[in-house]
Automatic annotation (TrEMBL), chain B:
<dbReference type="InterPro" id="IPR026140">
    <property type="entry name" value="Ribosomal_mS26"/>
</dbReference>
<keyword id="KW-0496">Mitochondrion</keyword>
<feature type="region of interest" description="Disordered">
    <location>
        <begin position="28"/>
        <end position="47"/>
    </location>
</feature>
<keyword id="KW-0175">Coiled coil</keyword>
<keyword id="KW-0687">Ribonucleoprotein</keyword>
<feature type="coiled-coil region">
    <location>
        <begin position="122"/>
        <end position="173"/>
    </location>
</feature>
<comment type="similarity">
    <text>Belongs to the mitochondrion-specific ribosomal protein mS26 family.</text>
</comment>
<feature type="compositionally biased region" description="Basic and acidic residues">
    <location>
        <begin position="32"/>
        <end position="45"/>
    </location>
</feature>
<dbReference type="GO" id="GO:0005763">
    <property type="term" value="C:mitochondrial small ribosomal subunit"/>
</dbReference>
<dbReference type="Pfam" id="PF14943">
    <property type="entry name" value="MRP-S26"/>
</dbReference>
<keyword id="KW-0809">Transit peptide</keyword>
<keyword id="KW-0689">Ribosomal protein</keyword>
<protein>
    <recommendedName>
        <fullName>Small ribosomal subunit protein mS26</fullName>
    </recommendedName>
</protein>
Amino acid sequence: MPMKGRFPIRRTLEYLQKGDLIFKNRVKIMTVNYNTSGELSEGARKFVFFNIPQIQYNNPWVQVVMFKNMTPSSFLKFYLDGGEQVLVDVEGKDHQLITQHVKKILCKSEEVLHVEALAKMQESNPANFGPKKYCLKECICEVEGQVPCPGTTPLPKEFTGKYRTQMAAAQE
Amino acid sequence: MFKVIGGRALPAARLLAPRCGVWVESVRGRKSRNDPPAKSKEGRIKLPPPVDPVEMVVMKERFTEYNLIMRALRLEFKEEVLRKKYEEETGSLAEERARQDAEEHKILMEWNDAENRRMLKIRQLRVQKETAEADQRKLEMILKRDHERQAFIQQKEQEILQLQEDAKNFITLENLDQRIEEALDRPRNYNYAIDREGRVVKRTVLD
């Protein structure tokens, strides 16, 4: 089955996950004002076409809004926690330049991302058993290849403590 | 007979909820409230299991000690988790981090403002250039139109002069007779061929 639309690669998971614009926690809304015609808006148009899907995929809790042909020049506006607004003028810039600019001012740095990834890995330590919210498995009986849960299938007689004490008592 | 109320249904999100184990309610199973007990159970006296006092004392001691230790361990772990969470959010390190974040944010915002100012200057220059070019083009158009008008007037004047020149050779009523006489005296022969350049090639003699 062929891919649909222009540049259908934008819809692939691989492409989306490759996006490296992960905003800081305080960025809540991102607004893009651009024009559909004009040489100066070309960079902004490409940014919207290629990079916005990646941004939204990597920041599902940030609201991204696009406005077309509302102002003569194109710009990005970010609304942060606490009411602060950050304006980024993108007239005449290339879409890669815009990405770099935004990454520099409002995204989590490589170290922070690294630390977060480590913390996440520690949380999902398969050696920890506990509630589903904090650990991967609750009991060893959930692991493949281990003794199944006695709640679902009764244990063989030899494994029960009752039988074992009986045998020990009979031997004495 | 005793039905277990499922612990899975309750929300497990309460971090430090006491885990009291199984919650059981008494249910009479197959028989309802008014059914009499079975005949085989007639005369049955339900007695609690026999208790050995010595064993009881020993077991009680051991169990109290065991429960104490387990409870202490559990509380220790809970305290550790809470302390970690507290430090994460409102510890001294967290404040330090928040301050550093704020500083970095300020620096980056200033850098962004500088970029915006630079773009503004570029844009102003561009707009200036565009207006200048537009003015230039308007002037040129005006000049061109003037030029064209002048040329048109010149051409018309030339035509008028040419016509005036030609008017001198017109045949009028006064020199009609004279011109007729001249034409009759000088017969003109139009029987000739010309080549592509317009030179006369051949003439046929007129009788």
